[in-house]
Prior knowledge:
Layout: E1 2-6, H1 10-21, E2 25-30, E3 43-44, H2 55-75, E4 86-90, H3 93-106, H4 113-119, E5 129-133, E6 137-138, H5 141-151, E7 156-158, E8 171-174, H6 180-184, E9 189-199, E10 208-213, E11 216-222, E12 227-231, H7 244-257, E13 265-276, E14 283-286, E15 293-297, H8 307-318
Parallel strand pairs: 1-2, 1-8, 2-7, 4-10, 8-15
Antiparallel strand pairs: 3-6, 4-5, 9-12, 9-13, 10-11, 11-12, 14-15
Helix pairs in contact: 1-5, 1-8, 2-8
The chain binds glycine.
Amino acid sequence: MTVAVVGAGIIGLAVAWRLRERGIDVTVLDSGEPGAWHVAAGMLAPAGESAFEQSALTRLLEESNDRWPAFAAELGVDVGFDDAGTLGLALTADDLADAARVWTRQKLPLLRPSELREREPALSPRVRAGVHAPAERQVDPRKVVAALRERLAGRIVVKRVESLSEVDAETVVVAAGCGTAALTGLPVRPVKGQVLRLRGEPGLLRHVLAATVDGRHVYLVPRADGEIVVGATQEERTDATVTAGGVHDLLHAALELVPGLAELELTETTVGHRPGTPDNAPLLGRLDDDSRVIVAAGHHRNGVLLTPITADLIAGLAAGFQDPLLEHFRPGRF
Ligand code: GLY
């Protein structure tokens, strides 16, 4: 069987890798422009990032989170340092009320500010309350993509696909992020996110911080090498402009949370577009029942987290196995 994967983002590459492991002849076609993975911080937060209570999506997120350590080990990348986990944080009483809805769902006990500062001494005294989610991790998506590209050496072709009729393969997997809409007619919309990268001496932070700060959601993802990723705006916009307001809002929230960040170098300001869908759950499965086209797109805020399970389910589907989990994520459900 021949399979062409359209899109060499983190999802497309992971699907192609799993297909190759099954001995399938796979080619990845890509325009060469980096996608959302290049901007993504790589937080692996199955509860904190899903706005809706959708039981099938929650299960998918949790199962994928469970698969990340083995997936990362196979690729030789790490998932956070010291298994520190994530701290969910709130600054004001309103922030606490907002965050508590998610924390209650996670069944995590509330920690006092002193307990939080024992874990992260750099936290501001303004932090009012928080929780520790030990099973949440992080990964550097740029390292994951580099490792996947290595494993697919010779299989990636730089080619902008304008129409699926140009693609000569028995099965075509469309993993083209926001570009999936133009190729398939499916309702995938771009959701702009501005993300900053700071750099300083390693050791200022150990945990991923996911916080509500004066009504604004912000996350800080520290890497062992001293990089700290600060994200993200969420804007229903298609432009790729880094705005003064976006950078201000992110830095303001980050510094309110961890004042010591003011000393770090601001090394990158970036913009990406999350591929959103009407219910913000991914599109996974055949375009039509008898179609040669399989879709793996629309992962919205959870593309990195959902990479391992998407790769397993979609490679399995291409090989002829329809996992019952896919039923909830049919591309044609709208
Ligand atoms: N998962 C983080 C974001 O989409 O901003």
